[in-house]
Design a protein that fits this description.
14 helices, four-stranded mixed sheet
Length: 415
């Protein structure tokens, strides 16, 4: 077997150095399977080499990619549904997109261009055929590299904060980049069916292991002298819903709630201030009850957060980040002294600081704050307004504007 590993590696490296269309269709099925297993072993080695480095960079706060959006599949689907999506639909679609065009016969874009040239009759048929064959051989290796690299880099979008991670793209997608070259090699040597088989096996193994590890999480129960907590993982609700929770003195309950939404409520922060990289899409039930008079609502929330960390091996850490913040200020003192709209059932009396906090919740892609607590407004903040319309509304009616400042904001990192 050692000889098989060595020969497979040398053949693969030789091909990557100089991609060509030489195939090995006549190899026996057992030989093809052994080659695929060897190539998969190389992929595993790469995973084991880079996983600790990735974890260390996250631990040192050098790299913060956020949650992996593919993790939601593990919570949204049953195992059968997961197999169908990641081991059948996904591999077939990606192989047709990235590997099918590696044969001239199935590169419909290139052939369409050739057809349009032939229609013009500017180049005689035989001469055009010879020209196309020579040109295809010349560009084949560049096409192979392009599709392999594109396949790898496109997977950076799996990470929640990929827009801030372009410099890290080669590192974050190293496994997919290697897979892109391996799948292209298999497609050329053995055919498209075999690259689909390898791709399906690769996805099934890694997603299957992740699914089983997350779904073996047991229910968590704690009973102390003054309070009790129970936390359990539940299936994703099949109906449209909003987070169902109740927080009163001595009682906290969540039903069929996403972990990210639970943390948002307990931390009393908009979701943009939560850097959750683990179990973000998991649905849970929580039941906390206390008979202790000293357990205020805030104390109860902290207790629940502590037990969430124990239940799912999570770590909550405060982290400061410098961000551009839109700071509210009164620019028109005349409007500020005007008679403001009369109170209605939809209007609330808010100071500038409270208005800033409310707007910070409404506009998730912006950071908004206000520090003035002296001016009180009877105001209706319409959540349906776009931010430019909200700016106009505040300026026209209240003389309130925004200025951009740089501030350190506190985030809660959960991993």
């Amino acid at each position: 077997m050692d000889g098989r590993f060595r020969s497979t590696w040398f053949n693969f490296v030789a091909f990557i150095r100089s991609p060509n269309e030489e195939n090995d269709f006549d190899a026996s099925i057992s030989s093809k399977i052994k080659t695929l297993l060897c190539l998969f072993s190389f992929a595993l080695i790469l995973v084991f080499l880079f996983a600790p480095i990735f974890s260390l960079l996250k631990f040192l706060n050098i790299l913060d990619p956020g949650s992996n959006v593919l993790e939601d599949l593990l919570f949204d689907f049953s195992f059968i549904q997961l197999v169908f999506v990641v081991a059948i639909i996904g591999p077939i679609f990606e192989e047709l997109m990235f590997r099918l065009p590696l044969r001239y016969k199935y590169n419909y874009l290139f052939r369409s261009i050739v057809f349009l040239i032939s229609v013009t009759r500017l180049i005689p048929g035989e001469k055009l055929k010879d020209l196309v064959q020579r040109y295809w051989k010349r560009i084949f290796k560049y096409l192979f590299y392009f599709l392999a690299i594109l396949f790898g880099f496109i997977h950076v979008t799996n990470f929640e904060r990929f827009k801030d991670l372009w410099a890290w793209m080669p590192f974050l997608t190293i496994n997919q980049l290697f897979a892109g070259f391996v799948l292209g090699y298999i497609r050329i040597k053995f055919g498209l069916i075999w690259s689909i088989i390898y791709h399906s096996f690769y996805n099934l193994l890694f997603f299957g292991m992740a699914f089983l590890s997350l779904n073996t999480l047991s229910n968590y129960n704690f009973t102390g002298d003054s309070y009790s907590v129970s936390i359990k993982k539940v299936a994703k609700p099949t109906y449209s819903y909003t987070t169902d929770f109740k927080i009163i003195p001595g009682k906290i309950e969540f039903r069929n709630s996403k972990l990210s939404q639970v943390i948002q409520v307990l931390e009393a922060k908009p979701e943009k201030y939560l850097l959750i990289s683990k179990c973000k899409g998991m649905y849970i039930d929580i039941n906390f009850s206390s008979g202790a008079i000293t357990h205020t609502t805030d104390t109860a929330k902290r207790i629940v957060i502590d037990h969430l960390q124990k239940a799912f091996s999570l770590k909550f850490k405060k982290q400061l980040k410098t961000k551009d913040v839109l700071l509210l200020f009164v620019s028109d003192s005349i409007k500020n002294r005007m008679t403001f709209p009369s109170d209605t059932s939809s209007n609330r009396k808010l100071c500038l600081k409270q208005i800033g906090r409310s707007l910070d919740y409404i506009y998730n892609d912006l950071f908004i704050a206000g520090s003035d607590t002296n001016h009180i407004y009877s105001i209706d903040l319409n959540r349906m307004l776009s931010f430019p319309d909200m700016q106009q509304y505040l300026l026209k009616n209240f003389g309130i504007e925004f200025r951009k400042v740089t501030k350190e904001l506190e985030f809660t990192k959960v991993d």
